Model the fold of this input.
Amino acid sequence: MLTILPIYLTSVLGAFLTFLVSTKYKQGPVRASALLTLIVAGFCFLFPQVFSESVTKQIPWTFFGASFVGMTSSKLTRNYTSIVFAGIIFGFIYTVSPTFFNGYGGALGTAACISILVIIGLNNLIRHSKVSKKKKILLQKISKTSS
Done:
């Protein structure tokens, strides 16, 4: 449990900070990902005693993968909350399936893609349920006035 918490925090920060630097500070997704990953990896390289050895080795990879989540277009994810939840999902995928992607290239990108697709799907479900509720209320009003 103690080693999982830094992984989740790194996932959320990686996704959020990359999205923030990319969109708000207009640095673009690639530059934001590269710059922030360089800072995090450099910190872990210069100060390896801050965390345990296994966590210190995982943090740069986790941040790098989560930065792929943050590279998502602002047209697909409209708010920071979606990016934070996608970061949490990425952290979950990263921690529960390290052996699943063995032998496949692009495991971090695949996990990031799955995370974003889950969030986009949930956002669409929420939006469609709100539209359905409005349609239902409108139909009830119409049926009451026609009766």
User: Anything to note?
Assistant: The two ends are 61 Å apart (CA to CA). The chain has a mean pLDDT of 90. Residues 4-146 form one domain. The chain has one domain: 4-146.
